[in-house]
Amino acid sequence: MNGYRFGTNVAWKWIQGGMNIVHLGGIASPITTDQSILMGRPDILLIPVGGGAKAYTAAEAKTAIDTLNPKLVIPTHYLTTAANSEACDLSPLDNFLALMQAQKFVGVAEVRLP
Fold first, then answer.
1. DSSP for the chain, written as a single string
2. Which of 61, 76, 71, 62 shows the shortest CA–CA distance to 110?
3. Of 9, 58, 60, 110, which is least packed with CB atoms within 10 Å of its CB?
4. Phi/psi-derived region of residue 58, left when phi > 0, alpha when psi is between -120 and 50, beta in every other case
């Protein structure tokens, strides 16, 4: 997969416990038809949603989600309170959640590591 500024991106796909899990890494480009076929329909999709150079914007993430039609979405790569918002080019998770408000999200919470 390609990124806008950094060329190649690695996406991971694996089957665990009978579930198709796809992690899109730092993707920032549209998913092609061939890529969509290779990934299949994920049971769980981990997708970057915070914009910046190495992640989808909220709107781009929604387009990718619509393309892959996963059963469960786990947003990644977004601005948290732990980051210096002046030095970070990511957007907060709220931007993505506002765009996806018609979808049902269960238990979205910020996790802080020590």
1. -EETTTEE---EEEEETTEEEEE-TT--SPPPHHHHHHH-S-SEEEEE-S-STTS--HHHHHHHHHHH--SEEEEES-B-TTS-TTT--PPBHHHHHHHTTTS-----------
2. 76
3. 110
4. alpha
Please tell me the pTM assigned to this model.
0.83
Backbone angles phi, psi at 93, to 5 degrees: -60, -30
Per the prediction, the chain carries an average pLDDT of 84
Contacts of 53 (CB under 8 A, 6+ apart): 3, 4, 5, 6, 28, 89
Question: Can you list the domains of the chain with their CATH numbers?
Answer: 2-99 (3.60.15.10)
Sheet containing 12-16, strands listed edge to edge, beginning at the edge strand earlier in sequence: 12-16, 19-23, 44-48, 72-76
Residues 6+ apart with CB under 8 A from 18: none
The confidence score (pLDDT) of residue 112 equals: 53
